[in-house]
Hints:
Layout: H1 2-17, H2 30-44, H3 46-52, H4 55-97
Amino acid sequence: MSIDSNNDSRIDTVLNSLEGMQRAKAPDFLYTRLQGRVEREFDQGGPIGRWLTRPVLALTIAAIILIANATTVLKMWKQNTASSNINTESGQVVAAEYPAGGVYPVYNENSPEP
């Protein structure tokens, strides 16, 4: 029982320590000062900063960038597929110009001439 009474007295001590507490009050004109600080920071960005913080403009710029990226990727993809067709055709043309036996008349490694 002494443990329960010790806990009860401790709880009572803690609760009684809160009797002198007062509700916290905000300083006078706190909201006005906060509004002024926000407006000052917003004005430091200048007219460009004000335009860039508008959601419509930010979304429009993001959409333009995404469209430009998509267009570039599509053009590169089309170019790669077209160039792969050209490469296979040009490779066949070049292979047809050389003899099939692997003997090239221009170069003879057993030639005694310098």
